[in-house]
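step: validate -> pass
step: tokenize input -> pass
step: predict -> running
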Amino acid sequence: MFITHKITGELKVLPLQNKAIESVIGIERICAVIENKNTVYDIEDVANLRNLIQYDSQSTLESVTKENRIIDHIRALCFLIPEGAPQPGRNGRARIIRKLMRELLTDLYVFNLNSIKTIEKLATEIIYIYKNRYPELQEKEEQIIVAISNHEKVYQKTLEKAGRAINRFLKKNEKNQLDKTETEYFKKQFGVPSELQEKYSRMMVD
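step: predict -> pass
step: emit ->
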């Protein structure tokens, strides 16, 4: 498949500066085969990024999954944001950008990592890795960091609002923690993942 154009947030079709060819297997899977790796997350470029994600807890299957998601999402954002991807919102591509940012930030919070410092380190490394193929990324590093940082402020307000609501609910019902049904309710009501609900309910005490 030849990829020659993009669709903007205003639904305009514009030619891409860097045209590409997409195959069913994908270039990263080809790299995994050439490098004799089990997954695309084990290839050299991705492994270099994994070394920048350092946290105190023991490595488990769940934590490795989060590492992979962090790497996947920050790489995607490093290309989407400079291409003029829309700011986070509710519809279309804007919704995808919002989802990528929130899942990225959530995993960083679970690891208790400094979100912006970690994102800066990862973005810098990604730009270095792809500097020969995509030199224009070097001019967009600040734009990438600012876009994610701005959305983090919005996300923090959402987390704090949910934390207060959960805290009030627990006090009213004389409970120490939410059950599965209540967790799903607050997730749907506020868009806050279950991994962060307890943390923010304890932080945001009325």
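step: describe -> The first helix runs from residue 27 to 34.
step: cleanup -> pass
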